[in-house]
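User: Working on a comparison across species. This one is Proton-dependent oligopeptide transporter family from Corchorus olitorius. Can you predict its structure so I can line it up against the others?
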Amino acid sequence: MVNFQFYLQAEKMSLTVADAVDYKGFPADKSRTGGWVPAALSLGIEVIERLSTMGIAVNLVTYLGGTMHLSSATSANVVTDFMGTSFLLCLLGGFLADSYLGRYRTIAIFATVQALGTCILAISTRLPKLRPPPCQATEVTQCQQASNSQMGVLYLSLYLIAVGTGGVKSSVSGFGTDQFDEKDEKEKAQMAYFFNRFVFVISIGTLMAVTVLVYIQDEIDRSWGYGICSASMFVAILIFLLGTKRYRYKKCLGSPVVHILQVAAAAIGKKNIKVPSDIALLYEDLPEALRINHTDQFRFLDKASVVTEDDYQGNGSFMVNPWKLCSVTRVEEVKMMIRLLPIWATTIIFWTTYAQMITFSVEQATTMGRTIGNFQIPAASLTVFFVAAILITLAVYDRLVMPLCKKWIGKPGFSNLQRIGIGLFLSAVGMAAAAISENKRLSVAKEFSENTTLPITVFLLIPQFFLVGAGEAFIYSGQLDFFITKSPKGMKTMSTGLFLTTIALGFFLSSLLVSIVKNVTGNSIKQGWVGDNINKGRLDYFYGLLAALSFINFGLFLISAAWYRRKTVKNAPQVKITAKVSEIEEKC
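Assistant: Here's the predicted structure for Proton-dependent oligopeptide transporter family from Corchorus olitorius:
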């Protein structure tokens, strides 16, 4: 009878997910929660978020120049600053999700904020009072620029969207992976495919943005395009909420930022303490199943786990102050985050090259022949080749490369670091191709300087879009996989936010480089490489500079990846904490 009850209990445990609960707070039942359907429902929010953000970003530079009458460089910087802030705020979204709100509430709240921001943007582009009077001058400097109040309303809408994007993007991918149990081999295999399909699906949103949405903005009305984004987001929120009963939820484990600060404070407070050679003497308070093995890297942080006399009260009783004594597992979590930083730093430059695809590359397209028969392709829609490269690359990788790798080497495709490396290399080649294409365009522009449309086909830009697009397919899925799977469980959303900050810093670096290059190469008389009119600049030199920086960065990434793989792991003896403390008490 006892054996039968034990069997029933074991069977019941096998049907639940150990670290997840359902919407009522009970252990999540595998047969009723999680899997591909709930993961797909959560992806709906991300698809619409990508539709809105990219639909705004890829065509915003033409609105700022053609309607708000800002200069070329200023317009590019407004776009990159907006995109950079959107991704930088992912850290805030990740912090709130991990510490207080949880991923589900974070997605619902911030998606609503983004929908409201897009609604305000639609209104601002509709009302004549919120934009300067039309101008037919050939030089934008001769037109009346938007007033501070007009730009203020525009900035309000853009940065509400940025706040919403930060919360949504930091949580959706983590919430999607929450729907799979890593301890179940079948679900773990499904999660391996999730990252690739995640990027593929959201790229569909980008494709819709640069084709349908851009066409509506250019040919029908810009406010209609933004209104569709807002309405679509509200619909996506309703669909997301319909899956409430099917989702698996992970509990908030406290603020990861506080945990990191506690380890740092404890280690600094014991800077003069020597770490014992026997790591079994270090403090640990978690059961064996939840522990992280001790590593020999960053030995200074191990001081935070050394038990001293100061960790005892006056009456001799042992009491843990997390700001003075941290468990080995807590210290190892911080070490795991530190190990991510070199990879994090070397992926920033990719997003700087990516920024050119939605700013200067779009401006290049506006000066070139875009007619096919009687149809004129909107300049911003040239990024369809960029998105096509992503979709084709992901489809080939998912349906061909991954099955072949699994058959031949027993692994489902390239590792996350290999994918990141491939993406960095392709983007560097893409910038070199962009420099060559721009050199050709400029040679034509010198002969036809007065023409608004140069007698050169816009399809000359296809190589740079395809190469950087294929690079994004590899690097985005690789980064997403790397930062989620190589980070501590309690810091998963924050690490996703950390990954997304590489995009933010890439856009900010783009703005900084444009400003520096503009000031160094130009003056009040001479425009320089970038400026108000790209036909009078040397954008090819700027692209060449980015290509050189990208190749140098690729070399640094290879060094960082080799360092990451060489990390050594030393298994700590499985000794109970009570035994450790009693041992230390005897020595004290």
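For your comparison, note: The longest strand covers residues 16-21.

User: Helpful, thanks.
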